[in-house]
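Example 3.2
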Amino acid sequence: MAIALSTLVQEADAFLTASRISDYCPNGLQVEGRPQVSRIVSGVTASQALIDAAIEAEADVLLVHHGYFWKGENPCVTGMKQRRLKALLANDISLLAYHLPLDVHPEVGNNVQLARQLGIVVEGPLEPDNPRTVGLVGSLEEPMSAIDFARHVQQVLGREPLLVEGEGLIRRVGWCTGGGQGYIDQAIAAGVDLYLTGEASEQTFHSARENGVSFIAAGHHATERYGVQALGDYLARRFALEHLFIDCPNPV
């Protein structure tokens, strides 16, 4: 079955309430390809490797979390950007990208989907009084040590995480996928035993160690693989389309 590209974009925009969320990049249709869609390829980042894989898979739409045209980047279409855009346009493939709307969505969002993968029971937002907060707080069904939880994360995500071990067992967890290390202080204020995100900064170690809280950096890419898969599956079910998630390995 094929549907109009405009119909797919309208549904994705509305489902994610993309227009209501201020972001660092445009959300939605970033590159327009053929007008009809029957096959979606999804992935985390619109890298050249993912574009090449989408071409090989004969995709009509490439759906990603990390697209293009970020605030502050050089707007000139040269070098890497030129090669990526040229490949999409030459093969008539649309690029559909959602950043923060895909992080915060209560059904297909990266943070909710990561919680489901790790068996964390979601309690609510990291900062209930801050509508811009993308992180969440939740609990484990059974308390475990920080080392055991890190092993669990490694088993689920297929990547050895960076662990800063704190004090006591892990019962309450705060998390924000991707580059959310800056939220560690809010997580500490929320009373978590462990904070998990994708990346770490130098000062993250000190915040965790001096507050007795465990910290895990499990990889930006690794923690953000699940939202775009869930969104692609939703759109495929909604319109009876084909959907293929392609994971291009990234150690960061």
